[in-house]
Prior knowledge:
The structure is a homodimer. By secondary structure, chain A is mostly helical. Chain A has a domain at about 200-345. Helix content of chain A is about 70%, strand content about 5%. Chain A is built from 20 helices and six strands. A two-stranded antiparallel ribbon of chain A has the order 1-2. Chain A has a two-stranded antiparallel sheet with strand order 3-4. The N and C termini of chain A lie far apart (about 90 Å). At the A-B interface, helix 2, helix 5, helix 9, helix 10 and helix 16 of A face helix 2, helix 4, helix 11, helix 12 and helix 18 of B. Chain A: One of its GO terms (biological process) is CDP-diacylglycerol biosynthetic process. Chain A: Belongs to the CDS family.
Amino acid sequence: xxxxxxxxxxxxxxxxxxxxxxxxxxxxxxxxxxxxxxxxxxxxxxxxxxxxxxxxxxxxxxxxxxxxxxxxxxxxxxxxxxxxxxxxxxxxxxxxxxxxxxxxxxxxxxxxxxxxxxxxxxxxxxxxxxxxxxxxxxxxxxxxxxxxxxxxxxxxxxxxxxxxxxxxxxxxxxxxxxxxxxxxxxxxxxxxxxxxxxxxxxxxxxxxxxxxxxxxxxxxxxxxxxxxxxxxxxxxxxxxxxxxxxxxxxxxxxxxxxxxxxxxxxxxxxxxxxxxxxxxxxxxxxxxxxxxxxxxxxxxxxxxxxxxxxxxxxxxxxxxxxxxxxxxxxxxxxxxxxxxxxxxxxxxxxxxxxxxxxxxxxxxxxxxxxxxxxxxxxxxxxxxxxxxxxxxxxxxxxxxxxxxxxxxxxxxxxxxxxxxxx
Amino acid sequence: xxxxxxxxxxxxxxxxxxxxxxxxxxxxxxxxxxxxxxxxxxxxxxxxxxxxxxxxxxxxxxxxxxxxxxxxxxxxxxxxxxxxxxxxxxxxxxxxxxxxxxxxxxxxxxxxxxxxxxxxxxxxxxxxxxxxxxxxxxxxxxxxxxxxxxxxxxxxxxxxxxxxxxxxxxxxxxxxxxxxxxxxxxxxxxxxxxxxxxxxxxxxxxxxxxxxxxxxxxxxxxxxxxxxxxxxxxxxxxxxxxxxxxxxxxxxxxxxxxxxxxxxxxxxxxxxxxxxxxxxxxxxxxxxxxxxxxxxxxxxxxxxxxxxxxxxxxxxxxxxxxxxxxxxxxxxxxxxxxxxxxxxxxxxxxxxxxxxxxxxxxxxxxxxxxxxxxxxxxxxxxxxxxxxxxxxxxxxxxxxxxxxxxxxxxxxxxxxxxxxxxxxxxxxxxxxxxxxxxxxxxxxxxxxxxxxxxxxxxxxxxxx
Lengths: 422, 464
């Protein structure tokens, strides 16, 4: 065994990564170099496949953007289900648990319950008027928490009843594996959908920032890469990391400027009951109107402008791009560590040349949660139709109290003329 | 299966099969792969992590006995079985007395009690994880587990405090900042912990570290989220905390007694001591108990009112006008029961009807939480979660049935009982854009006028 390592000194001494060691040794063997022409051909073929698939995916993405928010939501849902499937399949392989009774059924059943719960929350918030029209939908949405909890409990009881004597630990492992996977994939895909409903720009700019960071970090690493970044991913370099950071911030800034002009990207999705469809038309909020900022003294010398007119959203996009380039890669490192821990090369083989869906989306997950937290903390106020809904459900005395407080508040602000009787 | 493990040294055999299945062209050359046996031996230390059968797992050694000396001396004369009984009995009475004392002290103390129990349950389950995976020497891991516990608790406390104690928060400047941006701050803290985890991954221990990370997160999901649901139930009114918890305890005790005296048919293979007679007897007793307990507790404002912060007296009070649920209503007895009871009408609190639903859940579905915990203990070959309470095991052993109950009560309240919180609605209103506020004002005004609560303003030139 040691002689092998002496003979192939350039191959990494990774324990257990036998498939990689084998391919490395085959590639660097002097005998193989004689056959380097077909070798080179297969390497370029791999590049071509990756390139064509990348272009195909990007074109599909643009097509779906054109088709609208609803189709994007279906796309996100499809990706979520596929990611769930990939991770669960890895769990089956790790634990060699194909023949466990009920387990596949239960995993998909839990996926359904959790999705129903989250869709109930989202639809109840955003599409209240749409829901009012349909009777059955109203029942399903109004009591969605209770119904989804009851369904989940049924699955939980089925799990307890399905425990088989010799396989307790395995079954608990698969149960935990399913739940962690649900936590990762389903909650974050719903955060993505909520970002999307806030306005397509909140969906497009973060996702494209992460993709841009991937590509530019790779290019910078390819041309200038020298210092390795982290042991987990030996191909990443500090030069790629920093170059990717600056490129992504600039890209995000420009993309925000281009997209912020169009109502299609900027407006939250709404349901108009008059025309019975979903539209994205609105008065763009302050974030998406050009404002004039005075240039700070530092940059004045460089740019030789006194003021610059920007969309305020562009400033937010800097924060989003910074996160995408500095913290987003940790999602990739996590996935790399996961793959090494479970000795797999790719999550699946769905996309030729790229691996599984999860391989493409591992950096996106942290990004989606960050954007959602960012929006709820700094951008979005409460949803007015939701507030009105809650108001109308309160007790009459509480409604009166709120009415009085609101009236005095509005009068103070000068929006209402003070009336003589209450 | 076992032979394959011993020959190829762990998960190399099936791992090789998995790699061959991947089809990445590495070749299923077992000769070449077996030469790297020695390199994989280090990973084999954790090979049995993924073992398929339970039998080849070592037993987890129990921790030491913690019965206090004084009890041991007092019971030294009795046989071992009766001694165990007495210890259990005394500890039960002690716990119940402590519980009553804390109820007397108020909602805030109860909240601290729930928090303490949550931390202890988390500690117990994490310690089991350490023992199972023999991962004491993993770097950073204990710190990270406690750190994640802190972050998630901060997130949930932020949500709760922001909702219920808005006026309290307004007074304190720093608190206001911490609460208003609590989502962002807790997420940033969580991310820091996540990055620390990624940076702490050590080459030989990847799988173990991922397992402990997943173990921590599942434990957080179970203990922290549900303890916060308990606290939200508590803030809704102490009765929503007391009736469910006492129903579960009553079900435990009565099912045991019925099983002891009448038990014959075993219920489920997982827990051989449970019987159908105990299960059904416990069900009926718990429903009756819940009905009576609801009747007794619903009379007092102390139990029935949601907790509030009164800024005038700078303290938390539970005084209010009891809602409709807690006022006696007259119901006509259905014909079936008329013959039995010979009453035409009966006056009940509506809450008692809800208590039937809660008790039914406690006795029918609550035990599944206990079966889950039994299965878990068998899977990991432990007798008790810990030895905190002499005679009873760990805190987790006492609370395993409670968890499902807490979530159910919370879902029940939010679906059927509780409307939106008026102070929260007002808060949200005041943050909206002025045009949106005006729209809502108009809608509300017309709504109230329709209902007759407002007189229509004829000469009001109110809106610009």
